[in-house]
Amino acid sequence: MTRPLEVIPAEPHRVAAALEAALSGSGPAILPHPDPSSAVDVPELVPQKVAVVVETSGSTGRPKRVAISPDALLANAAASEVALGGPGQWMLALPAHYIAGIAVLVRALAAQIAPVFLDPSGFTAERFVAAAGELDHPRRFVSLVPVQLSRLLDTDDAVHALRGFERVLVGGQSMPSALAARADELGVSITRTYGSSETSGGCVYDGVAIGDTRVRISDGRVELAGSMLAEGYLGDPERTELAFRDEHGDRWFRTDDTGEVVDGVLTITGRADDVIVSGGVKVSLAAVEAVVRGMPGLEQAVVVAAPHPVWGESPVVVSELAVTREEVRSVVAEQLGAAAAPTEVVIVDRVPLLPSGKPDRLTVAALVSGSRGDA
């Protein structure tokens, strides 16, 4: 059994209406997209149980399309509602083609309380405050990424608006502890969320699994199970088989994250690959390094990740040749985009090497940490 798949513009009102029809089965499955004309190789039909397809970059940069059922989306929404102590009114402050934005719309539909949409022309503190003023329910929620929260905490009016939310969900990337502490000091109630398109959105709140979500660590990797899991990757059975596995009647999703669980609380310790999330955008350190090494005299440069107070993480270049941060940022941004531009350049006498002759990346990362006063 199949159903039609429609690629639609990621306009909040349009996505909300199409999502309601997709979940009920009265309309086609949808793939919200910021530029529908650029979506290629999209099938006309998908399996009947698929309601939403979310397009996102893979850890290698190869795009993937996550196929999600109505049951999974609604299970995630129900779990979130219980974890938050009941229904409320949501503000959509994230793009409607991201799973976090779609999850907000699903929660609003499940609660049968109309959401408020932030001006889609761009996120600013002023637009956030204006949208918050449209909320009319006593219980209010919003989902943000750390960089949005950081910008809002710099504005008195926005801080006042944030205090009116019963809970501010923050996810999409690692959040600096200093940012969380600052929000707490200003009286903003935040919850750190962890999840992905493959889990229909956040399924771990402040390290604790919600609903029937289960968490385990296998070979250092975080794995998740529960009714919120996606069906797999559309048109990519090989990738689906690698990421999703059935064990004794249970289905598990193997993430690219490393972590540990202590007393039932999950802590993410890093990524199993070289991809970081900077400002909500996935950035391949290998790709950045390739561009940097293509610059004259920087053939031996190494790129590692470092914590950033605003973006969560960012690339840092370690080089034996004196080069300015502006030079590197300009070249990388031109080829890979602004999110990939290194935020620092650390000059060393000699890049540490392993006996194999490869860069000793652990030592390089320690040098970066020491140069920034983090050691």
Automatic annotation (TrEMBL):
Tell me which InterPro entries the record gives.
Answer: AMP-bd_C (IPR025110), AMP-bd_C_sf (IPR045851), AMP-dep_synth/lig_dom (IPR000873), ANL_N_sf (IPR042099)
Alphabetically, the GO molecular function entries are: o-succinylbenzoate-CoA ligase activity
Top-rank taxon of the source lineage equals Bacteria
Arranged from A to Z, the UniProt key words for this protein are: Ligase
**Domain AMP-dependent synthetase/ligase: where?**
39-214
Tagged with keyword Ligase: yes
> Which Enzyme Commission numbers does its entry carry?
6.2.1.26
The family database entries (SUPFAM superfamilies) matched by this protein are listed as: Acetyl-CoA synthetase-like
Every copy of the AMP-binding enzyme C-terminal domain together lies at 288-358
User: Is Ligase one of the keywords?
Assistant: yes
The UniProt entry's sequence similarity note says: Belongs to the ATP-dependent AMP-binding enzyme family.
Protein name as it appears in the record: O-succinylbenzoic acid--CoA ligase
Which organism encodes this protein?
Antiquaquibacter oligotrophicus
